[in-house]
Automatic annotation (TrEMBL):
Recorded GO MF terms: hypoxanthine phosphoribosyltransferase activity; magnesium ion binding
Name under which the protein is recorded: Uncharacterized protein
InterPro entries in alphabetical order: HGPRT, PRTase-like
SUPFAM superfamilies in the record: PRTase-like
UniProt organism field: Schistosoma mattheei
GO biological process: GMP salvage; guanine salvage; hypoxanthine metabolic process; IMP salvage
PANTHER family in alphabetical order: HYPOXANTHINE PHOSPHORIBOSYLTRANSFERASE, HYPOXANTHINE-GUANINE PHOSPHORIBOSYLTRANSFERASE
GO cellular component, one term: cytosol
Domain of life of the native organism: Eukaryota
Length: 98
C-alpha cells in the first residue's frame, strides 16, 4: 500500500471532535468524577494496531524481507512499540499455523 492509499484510509479526528461520553464505558470508580469523555476507546486502538501490523507484515512479505525488527527511539514510545511488537508476533504466528 502506498502513502496515498494510507492517507485516503486513515482515521482523522478534527478539532471539533469531542469524543464519546464516558457514561458509555465502564471506568474505575476512582476516575468516574474526573473523566467526562473518552477520545479513543481501547478497542479502537487495539483494532488499529492489528490493522497496522497486518499492513506491515504484508508490505515486508511482498518485499521478500524475512525478519522484522522493532526499535523504539522515542522516550514515551515504549508502550506503543511493545504493543505493536506483540501484535506483529501474534499475527505472524496465526498466519504460520493456518
Amino acid at each position: 500500500m502506498n502513502s496515498r492509499e494510507y492517507k485516503k484510509d486513515c482515521i482523522i479526528f478534527d478539532d471539533s471532535y469531542e469524543g464519546y461520553s464516558a457514561k458509555n464505558f465502564t471506568l474505575p470508580e476512582i476516575y468516574e468524577k474526573h473523566i467526562s469523555t473518552i477520545l479513543i476507546p481501547g478497542g479502537m486502538v487495539r483494532s488499529r494496531l492489528e490493522r497496522m501490523s497486518i499492513d506491515i507484515l504484508d508490505d515486508y512479505e511482498k518485499s521478500g524481507v524475512q525478519s522484522v525488527y522493532v526499535i523504539c527511539i522515542l522516550k514515551g514510545g515504549f508502550k506503543f512499540a511493545s504493543e505493536i511488537w506483540k501484535t506483529l508476533q501474534s499475527i505472524h504466528l496465526r498466519v504460520k499455523i493456518t
